[in-house]
Amino acid sequence: FISAVLNQNITDIVLERDSTLPKDMLDDKVGILDVKVKIDNKINCDIEMQVVDKKNIEKRILFYCSKMYAQSITAGTDYIDLEKSIAILISNYELESLKEIKKYVSKWNLREEYYKNIILTDDIEIVIIELPKFKKYMNNTALADWVKFIINPKVIDMSNEEVKKAKKVLDELSQDEHERRLAELREKYIMDQKATEAAGYDKGLESGLK
Questions:
Q1: What local confidence, expressed as pLDDT, does residue 50 receive?
Q2: Which of 9, 14, 94, 174 has the lowest tally of Cβ within 10 angstroms?
């Protein structure tokens, strides 16, 4: 998945043990999947899935990425030792700030305001994948196979060996009673959050009309 997102060859990926999201946590972060990995022993990457729109995801993802970047060196070391940091956001809703972008995946870095082809540094990079845009702007890429799998794990491209491996792992997790119970609780939380948002919107609309 990461190779497809970044469109580059990756030789090694290591899942960090100190994930920022304990899998049993059932609070306001339960609607988020947050995974940290090390790429080729030199790039830090945070992968986050957001299913409930908290209206602050742009600030959140920038905070995560900059925090990873700052923490990549320790006191007494030189700035040259700072490691590249990439934040990958998968959102189950369209971001209001990106509504004019006519594609489902966008890549962000630090560019000059008028000379947009010149990047100040690629040390900080943010990739945003908006799942609702996929049907409108889908293409025939390796990433598209992964997005299809994320949207509907039951329907996969059998010719993609990596996606097949992911499906096998997902099936094994789904058979675990504890994991299945957590998934049910998370799904209930997400549905409750969306219902609360809808109720708040209707109430605000009614007040606005009055």
A1: 87
A2: 9
